[in-house]
Design goal:
Helices cover 43% and strands 13% of the residues. By secondary structure, the chain is α+β, with helices and mostly antiparallel strands. It binds S-adenosylmethionine (SAM). Residues 19-23, 78, 80, 94-95, 112-113, 115-117, 170-172, 174, 176 line the site of S-adenosylmethionine. The site of S-adenosylmethionine has 19 residues, from strand 2, helix 3 and strand 7. Pfam families: SET.
């Protein structure tokens, strides 16, 4: 078995948090990108889209196969479902974390104790190569501050929808920093999140990318501006970098594709670590953007000798990166 890089011991303690049951608290200052946790699931749960009674049968079988100590630890996990379902299903539904893009999930004795924030300071990610859940710091976390993840997977949704989802699925009213903004600031925040979603839909529309790649890229630029104002430092950044990479790669603009892939790789590394399969994929694309399967697809004629101007950085680099006047010469329309 491959070596599994360990999480650093003593980074957190699990203790009671007012109004939230128990939760994770930083024991000392944790720097952005630090691996806070690396954990194997106590048990895996089947595809959550399947029928509930067969899911329960499978989970029951899994629970019975645990040792007595593990069973005790399982039944000590929180259950907020009350009488809506059996205790076993209630525990699964309260504590399950997704295992990657599949609909299966996992229960963790430690990771399942991390509470939610709509503006989290940590990110959980399933590492299929390692068979472990990882949790990384998205920004510096001061000692004694709570470590939080988002239970709402990577979509920018507004206050009312977030509250509805968290109440329905996890039975709590969120009072995180974002949900506690004064009304005007909260409305502004909702508007920005709504903009991010609709601009992202437009920017990833394949027909538009193929016919008007410059328009799609300028929309991604707008997404970055909105994320910055919103103070978002989560998986949305890696996703926006990757969308920008895809657009530049489809145009066959190797130089810009490389810069965006490098940024996607750097963002992925922070939230999932260097050993995460997607991070490894992004690293490869940063080294060889031409290996992307849609590279050069949007252009009848493209020039993959484009190079980033030597030695530019800061504002000059940003100006070059987002100005795509050259693309019009190669437009497929
Ligand atoms: C996966 S558990 C998290 C750990 C849990 N607090 C414990 O004591 O084991 C999810 C449950 O924790 C509580 N919780 C998580 N985040 C919360 C938050 N931001 N505010 C209030 N309760 C929260 C809710 O009861 C939720 O259903």
């Amino acid at each position: 078995m491959a070596d599994v890089p360990a999480s650093r011991d003593g980074l957190y303690t699990i203790k009671p948090i007012t109004g939230k049951g128990r939760g994770f608290v930083a024991a000392s200052k944790i720097s952005k990108g630090t691996r806070i946790l690396l954990e194997v699931p106590l048990l895996k749960t089947p595809d959550s889209t399947g029928d509930i009674s067969s899911a329960e049968t499978i989970v029951l079988r899994e629970v019975k196969s645990l040792t007595k100590d593990q069973q005790r630890a399982f039944f000590a996990l929180q259950n907020v479902q009350g009488r809506r379902c059996t205790p076993v299903l209630g525990i699964v539904m309260t504590n399950m974390l997704p295992l990657g893009a599949s609909n299966s999930g996992g229960l963790f004795l430690e990771a399942s104790r991390i509470n939610h924030s709509c503006q989290p300071n940590a990110q959980h990610a399933w590492n299929d190569d390692l068979g472990h859940m990882t949790v990384h710091a998205l920004r510096d976390i001061d000692a004694d501050h709570e470590i939080t993840i988002s239970y709402i997977s990577g979509v920018s949704i507004g206050y009312a929808e977030r509250q509805r989802h968290l109440m329905e699925a996890f039975s709590f009213a969120c009072v995180c920093e974002l949900c506690s903004l004064p009304l005007t600031a909260r409305n502004d925040s909702d508007y920005r999140l709504d903009q991010v979603r609709s601009i992202e839909d437009a920017a990833t529309d394949l027909d538009q990318v193929l016919d008007h790649p410059a328009k799609s890229l300028s929309q991604v630029h707008q997404i970055f501006e909105l994320l910055e104002v919103q103070g978002i430092c989560d998986i949305s950044i890696a996703r926006a970098c990757f969308i920008a990479f895809q657009i530049a790669a489809m145009v066959g603009d190797k130089a810009r594709a490389k810069v965006f892939a490098e940024r996607a790789y750097a963002a992925r590394k922070v939230l999932a670590g260097d050993d995460n399969p997607t991070t490894i994929e992004f690293k490869h694309l940063a080294e060889r953007p031409v290996d992307y399967h849609l590279y050069g697809k949007s252009m009848k004629c493209y020039d993959d000798s484009w190079e980033a101007p030597r030695g530019i950085c800061g504002e000059d680099l940003e100006n070059w990166l987002w100005s795509t006047d050259e693309w019009s010469r190669y437009s497929s329309s």
